[in-house]
Structures are given as C-alpha cells and as structure tokens.
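Example S7 (structure tokens).
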C-alpha cells in the first residue's frame, strides 16, 4: 500500500504563493544542504544553489520532452540517472499518462528518503530505485532502455565521472536502438570549460545529437538530446 502524500496546512499553501514556505531542511550525504519547500502551492526540493525537483528543473524537462515528441514515442522502459524526488517520473506518469517502468538511480540516500516522505514516489508503478553513483551503475547495467535521462548534479555541477567518453559510451550501450537520450547541463562561467569538453565528447559519441537551450530563472540549461548512433 502506498503511503499518503504529504499534505501541507492550507494557510501555508496559500502563503507559498507570496513567499516560499520551508517544510524541512537537512544535510544530504552527497548533495549538500537540502530544503523541502512549498512554492506556488507545490512542494519542491532545492539545494543551496539549484532546484533538484519540481521547480525550474521540472519545467526544463517538460519543455525538452515536448520539443522531442516524447508523448508520442514508445517509452516502455526508462533509466533516470539523478532521480531526485521524481520530477521526470511525474511528467511521464502524471502528465503524459504513460505506464513507463522506471529504473531510478540516486546517489544520495537522504534524497530518496525525502522522496518517500514528502513526494510519494512509491505511487509510480514499476518504479525500481537504485542507491548508486550514476557512473558505477551504467558500467555494470546490462539492460537497454527506450528513454534515458541524465540529470546528475551536486548543486550546479555535473560530476566529472559523468561527462567523459567512457560514461557516454556506457549510455550509448544502454540506449535501445529506437530509444532517445536526454542529458541536462547547467552552463555558467565556472562550468564553461567542463561544458566545452563535455560537448566535444557528446558529439563524438552521439554525432546525430542536438542541443536545446532553456533559460529559466537564473539558470542556463543546456539539454543534449540524441537517438542511438546509426551503425
């Protein structure tokens, strides 16, 4: 039986339309300080610098999925690296009404706990949650997926282990021949060199890919999208 979703008091939900309402703050094992807040009547998970789930990040993937026609694609299986508290799963199941079986990889046990406590992630049918580093998981996984989403961040930085040629080669191996990959990157002055290096690696492994740009709030999100390379 799924736990009841968290319900905030009505007055705090109303106040959240004027100013964010902090529900809980705790230290993550990997992700720094984590804050569950009500914003505009909706629960979100934030770090010190960025939104991890259901805020600006949610909008990024709504736009990216819409631009790429995910609604009409076959997505029986999905791999979400950097699951957070379920933004991508909510888009697939709640908004697009898909029955996608999701393998969710998250490296911070505190985020998984927050997802269960506040965001009712167990409501997603077929969800399998793996506590693991993304790079470790893709190196040992033997499955293939119709949809792969990479949203791995520690605050606004993608770990170096997730931007190199080896990691991208593993992603290509895990992508179904008719599947599609989304890789989210936040571009900033301090991440420019990492972005340049990653883009070269991505174009080498996925030469038919494209880059979408989404400016939401203060963040310059670059979502790299590709199908499987033609053999």
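Recovered sequence:
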């Amino acid at each position: 039986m799924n736990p009841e979703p968290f319900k905030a008091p009505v007055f705090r939900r109303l106040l959240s339309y004027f100013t964010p309402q902090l529900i809980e703050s705790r230290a993550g094992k990997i992700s720094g300080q984590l804050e569950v807040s009500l914003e505009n009547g909706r629960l979100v998970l934030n770090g010190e610098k960025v939104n991890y789930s259901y805020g600006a990040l949610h909008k990024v993937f709504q736009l990216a999925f819409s631009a790429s026609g995910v609604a009409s694609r076959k997505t029986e299986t999905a791999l979400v690296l950097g699951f957070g508290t379920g933004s991508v799963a909510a888009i697939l199941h709640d908004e697009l009404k898909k029955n996608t079986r999701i393998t969710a990889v998250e490296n911070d046990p505190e985020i998984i706990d927050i997802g269960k406590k506040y965001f009712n992630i167990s409501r997603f049918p077929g969800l399998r949650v793996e506590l693991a580093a993304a790079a470790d998981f893709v190196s040992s996984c033997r499955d293939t997926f119709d949809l792969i989403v990479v949203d791995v961040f520690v605050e606004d930085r993608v770990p170096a282990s997730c931007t190199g040629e080896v990691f991208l080669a593993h992603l290509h191996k895990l992508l179904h021949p008719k599947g599609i990959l989304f890789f989210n990157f936040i571009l900033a002055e301090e991440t420019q060199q990492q972005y340049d290096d990653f883009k070269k690696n991505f174009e080498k492994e996925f030469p038919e890919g494209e880059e979408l740009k989404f400016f939401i709030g203060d963040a310059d999100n670059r979502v790299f999208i590709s199908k499987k390379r033609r053999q």
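Notes on this example. The two ends are 45 Å apart (CA to CA).
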